[in-house]
Design goal:
about 300 residues; alpha+beta; 7-stranded antiparallel beta sheet; single chain
Length: about 300
């Protein structure tokens, strides 16, 4: 029993309130997953830099120095450009004006064994063990700017309580996936993806879903098609929220065993595992509110 709260702000005037709005939503789903939590925020200028890739690394005591990364990236960085390292709560952020894959290679060279929890030009992923509101406070969620965001409170069932097992799983540039439920055949799908060359960072069943979506997107599926195909391959009971740089999608399994509620206005679209998580959003009294149909993929774009 995990909790999901996701918010896409179509009205730029609301984006300075992203952190406070998401914090209010998160507060109402903590009882669904008290052991760990994760956040993904898009387009926050204090966390990401326009034209640069940013990696979100698990841990705040990694001792990663920008000078080591710059040495590895010599000849790749634009003239005069340097990487930067920032600590936010329990997360280390590394940015540089190079593709995310090259930056990840430099970081793993400088600090072997480091876990990249998020990557891209527009997203920052922060996750940790502990009470979800404590995790949010350590990362300064309440004051954050953003265009869209997703949060997750976890009650571990398929793997250990670790920061690495927390959601969201961000396994491709600006792609995030959160999951309430379980995939019953994740082991066989993992083996097939590994056969195709896909690498994994954990034993979590949710990572299999995220890797599958990323693989389908690489095969030229759009987000809706990738999630339709996921429903044909992965069995189980689930509600998923998937975000990209400019879109958000929600899908439930064909039986719709796991709860989900969506509210939509001209200014925003929100999804949560509990209606009470939506109750304080601005204009909720005029929102279109509905429960997503079983097996149907819903998508929205910024």
């Amino acid at each position: 029993m995990c909790g999901i709260a996701a918010l896409q702000l179509r009205n730029p005037g609301l984006r300075p309130q992203m952190g406070s709005l998401l914090s209010t939503m998160l507060c109402e789903i903590v009882d669904r997953g008290p052991d760990s939590a994760g956040l993904a925020i898009y387009d926050n200028p204090q966390l990401t830099t326009e034209g640069a890739s940013t990696l979100s690394l698990l841990g705040a005591d990694l001792n990663i120095r920008s000078t080591e990364i710059d040495t590895f990236l010599a000849g790749l960085l634009p003239k005069g450009a340097k990487s930067s390292v920032k600590i936010v709560g329990d997360t280390t952020l590394v940015s540089a004006k190079v593709p995310a894959g090259e930056l990840a290679a430099a970081v793993t060279h400088a600090s072997p064994g480091v876990v990249v929890a998020g990557r891209g030009e527009r997203v920052t992923v922060m996750k940790s063990v502990g009470h979800p509101m404590d995790v949010a406070e350590r990362h300064g969620l309440d004051g954050m700017y953003g265009s869209q965001a997703v949060s997750h409170t976890r009650m571990a069932t398929e793997s250990a309580v670790t920061a690495g097992g927390s959601h969201p799983f961000s396994v491709a540039d600006d792609l995030c996936l959160v999951h309430n439920g379980s995939f019953s055949n994740h082991a066989s799908v993992r083996r097939e993806l590994k056969r195709l060359g896909v690498q994994f960072d954990s034993e979590n069943d949710t990572e299999v879903g995220a890797r599958y979506v990323a693989h389908r997107l690489q095969q030229s599926d759009d987000l809706e098609a990738a999630l339709v195909n996921l429903g044909k391959v992965l069995d189980g009971f689930y509600t998923l929220v998937v975000t990209t740089a400019d879109s958000m999608a929600v899908v439930r399994d064909p039986i719709a065993c796991k709860p989900a509620i969506i509210a939509e206005t001209d200014d925003w679209v929100a999804m949560a595992s509990e209606f009470r998580a939506l109750a304080e959003l601005p204009g909720i009294e005029n929102a279109r509110i509905f429960e997503p149909e079983p097996g149907r993929v819903y998508t929205w774009s910024l």
